[in-house]
Automatic annotation (TrEMBL):
GO terms for molecular function: hydrolase activity. Residues 23-405 form the Beta-lactamase-related domain. This is Serine hydrolase domain-containing protein. Keywords: Hydrolase. SUPFAM superfamilies: beta-lactamase/transpeptidase-like. Its EC number is 3.-.-.-. It is an enzyme of class 3 (hydrolase).
């Protein structure tokens, strides 16, 4: 398995040791009062791990510690990996950002847009613009998630078995056929909505490459980067390393074990989810973030070209707008004002408008399961935090973490 260790004294790379300890004190309080089971954190600067810490349990009920080899459900932090996979194929000329998705999944040739009406009798109209590959990458496709429960189209997903998972037995190809038959929330390219776009993108990768998504990930991203423990499920020999899953009690805020939501990670899924399928370790995902910080290369393994990655980090929202203007609220603490969206990542455009201490151009993503990462190219810094608590917005956790990491930069 890949390992992670502290590689440099924080002061040598412009981080204050005393200020870094504030992060651990803040996060540890969440464990001590029962709001979190445990956590792990890595902060790097100039490509070197300067602060590595953990506290609490990966399995509170069995008193198993949060350890270096603990496996976590990455959930939506799968999306950036799928985006990188698609851009590998873009670089090779196998797919194009302007390509209609129907070139790879014919069912998307006839998608329609919701106009009005109830779930059982929606009034729809043909799209005037096809869903293109770039719309999947930027979440401007008009696809959605059932768990939003904020629109009749969300309810259509839920009624058909698409809420937090896909219907049992259906593979990714079959799921895409269903999603293509559901109405879109809006005309592709006109707004932003969090949904199954990355799942459909994963299917595009499969069709275009001729490989299953797990095989493509393994050969083109995971193996080159040494991400030895990252996969779409946990095999039996690693099951004891998987963190237990917890949800926040609405009344008390305390972390409550939820094996029903967590058990899916122990079995190979029928549908390989490019949105939320991966299980990984802090050490493995750290390697992915260092590839991003290195503009596509890590330890001599180039995954993407630097110009490709820089293009991914532009704001691809319509008219250069921010998420607050053209997006629906997401299930997280993430700021939306002053924040754009690229091809797979949220990108801070205006820190003052966003109300966060950050650099313009800082980018990353998170998940409803509590995991988060970001990369700050200006400060040459990455941060990676893993826990297993849903929803991630139950406590002021991710926002405070950004504050605490950035206040430790003193050079």
């Amino acid at each position: 398995m890949s390992r992670i260790k502290t590689e440099v004294d924080p002061a040598e790379v412009g981080l204050s040791p005393d200020r870094l300890r504030r992060i651990d004190a803040y996060l540890s309080a969440y464990v001590d009062d029962g709001r979190l089971p445990g956590w792990q954190l890595a902060v790097t600067r100039d490509g070197k791990v300067a602060h590595l810490s953990s506290y609490g349990s990966r399995d509170r009920e069995n008193d198993l510690p949060a350890a270096g080899d603990t496996l976590y459900r990455a959930w939506s932090m799968t999306k950036p990996v799928t985006s990188v996979a698609a851009m590998i194929l873009v670089e090779e000329g196998v797919i194009g950002l302007q390509d209609p998705v129907s070139r790879y999944i014919p069912a998307f040739a006839d998608v329609r847009v919701y106009q009005r009406g109830p779930v059982d009798r929606p009034v729809t109209a043909p799209v005037t613009e096809p869903i293109r590959v770039r719309h999947l990458l930027s979440h401007t496709s008009g696809l959605t998630y059932g768990f939003h429960r904020a629109h009749p189209v969300d309810e259509i997903y839920t009624k058909n078995g698409y809420e937090w998972a896909t219907p049992p037995g259906l593979d990714l190809a079959a799921c895409c056929e269903h999603w293509a038959s559901f109405p879109l929330l809006f005309e592709p390219g006109t707004a932003w909505n969090y949904g199954v776009s990355s799942d459909v993108l994963g299917r595009v990768v499969e069709v275009a490459s001729g490989q299953s998504l797990d095989a493509f990930f393994a050969s083109r991203i995971l193996e080159p980067l040494g991400m030895e423990d990252t996969a779409f499920f946990v095999p039996p020999e690693k099951a004891d390393r998987l963190a237990a899953f917890y949800t926040a009690d609405p009344a008390t805020g305390r972390a409550t074990r939820n094996d029903g939501l967590g058990a899916g990670a122990l079995h190979r899924p029928a549908a390989l989810s490019g949105s939320a399928g991966l299980v990984t370790t802090l050490a493995d995902y750290h390697r992915f973030t260092q590839m991003l910080l290195g503009e596509g290369v890590h330890e001599g393994q180039r995954i993407l070209g630097p110009r490709t990655l820089r293009h991914m980090l532009r704001n691809h929202l319509p008219g250069g707008a921010d998420l607050n203007s053209v997006g629906r609220p997401v299930f997280s603490e993430m700021p939306t004002a002053g924040v754009g969206f690229g091809l797979g990542f949220a990108v801070v455009e205006d820190p003052a408008q966003a109300g966060v201490v950050a650099s313009p151009g800082e980018y990353g993503w998170h998940s409803a399961a509590g995991t988060i990462f970001w990369v700050d190219p200006k400060e040459r810094l990455t941060a990676l935090f893993f826990t297993q608590l849903m929803p991630s917005s139950a406590h002021p956790l991710h926002g405070r973490l950004r504050q605490l990491v950035n206040q430790a930069v003193v050079d």
